[in-house]
Specification:
The strands form 3 sheets. Strands 2-1-6-5-8 form a 5-stranded parallel beta sheet, with helices on both faces. Strands 3-4-7 form a 3-stranded mixed beta sheet. The protein is built from 8 helices and 10 strands. It folds into 2 domains: about 150 residues, Alpha/beta knot, CATH 3.40.1280.10; about 60 residues, tRNA(m1g37)methyltransferase, domain 2 (Trp Operon Repressor, Chain A, Orthogonal Bundle), CATH 1.10.1270.20. By secondary structure, it is of the alpha/beta class.
């Protein structure tokens, strides 16, 4: 996969791209990661990328020309790349979106600053807009880092264990089950016996139940989109009944 990030502050990505999973993906040849300063594409002696908004108002607006020309340059030999605008008005980013983007060959992220983008960037340049949450950041760089990390770790061969990604929270629709490691007894706090039983069927059943319970407790809204067995529905009803008893 090829990932280009258009930004006015490419140095922000130096540490991110040279560490952890990102570096591993790059070293393995699984992902080509590049931060490009789109100021280099601005016209004129002073390379100005922003201007006052028509109609007045606070702040400055990013001009369309540098972004259009930068994307044109990056896509000269590309086949239908996804061009993503990082913006708090965009689609809320999810694990399912990360899995969708991980199937692409080329992603281009646009990171803005100032008051916003010229509307023609939204209408005629990008393929979609993504938000990582209902809050506003100084620029799109941090959001692009989050999305890039989430996508790159899903590429085949990047993670050490190929089962890691499918078991992540949200990948199955449920939150991930609890994990334990040595020692089995830490200051009187013990690992559940089932995990040391060696019975993989029982272990998987325990993990599924714990994932279901954790989702019910923390993110019950997710259960509406998950196909549950009759046994799992009954289990949730049992938890609900116990909760009502505790409340009374």
């Amino acid at each position: 996969m090829k990932i280009d990030i258009l930004t006015l502050f490419p140095e922000m990505f130096d540490g991110v791209f040279s560490s952890s999973i990102m570096k591993k993906a790059s070293d393995k040849g699984k992902a080509s990661l590049r931060a490009v300063n789109f100021r280099e594409y601005a016209e004129g002696k002073h390379k100005v990328v922003d201007d006052y908004p028509y109609g007045g108002g606070a702040g400055m607006v990013l001009k369309p020309q540098p972004l259009f020309d930068a994307v044109a340059d990056l896509t000269k030999t590309a086949e239908n790349p996804r061009i993503i605008l990082m913006c708090p008005q965009g689609e809320r980013f999810t694990q399912q979106k990360a899995e969708e983007l991980a199937r692409e060959k080329h992603l281009i992220f646009l990171c803005g600053h100032y008051e916003g983008y010229d509307e023609r960037v939204r209408q005629h340049l990008v393929t979609e807009e993504i938000s990582i949450g209902d809050y506003v950041l100084t620029g799109g760089e941090l959001g692009a880092m989050v999305v890039t990390d989430s996508v790159v770790r899903l590429l085949p061969g990047v993670l050490g264990n190929e089962q890691s990604a499918p078991q992540d929270s949200f990948s199955s629709g449920l939150l991930e089950h609890p994990h334990y490691t040595r020692p089995a007894d830490f200051r009187g706090m013990k690992v559940p016996d089932v995990l040391m039983s060696g019975n993989h069927k029982y272990i998987e059943e325990w993990r599924r139940t714990e994932s279901l319970k954790r989702t019910w407790e923390r993110r019950p809204d997710l259960l509406a989109s998950i196909e549950l067995t009759e046994k799992e529905k009954q289990q949730i009803e049992s938890w609900e009944a116990e909760k009502q008893v505790d409340l009374t």
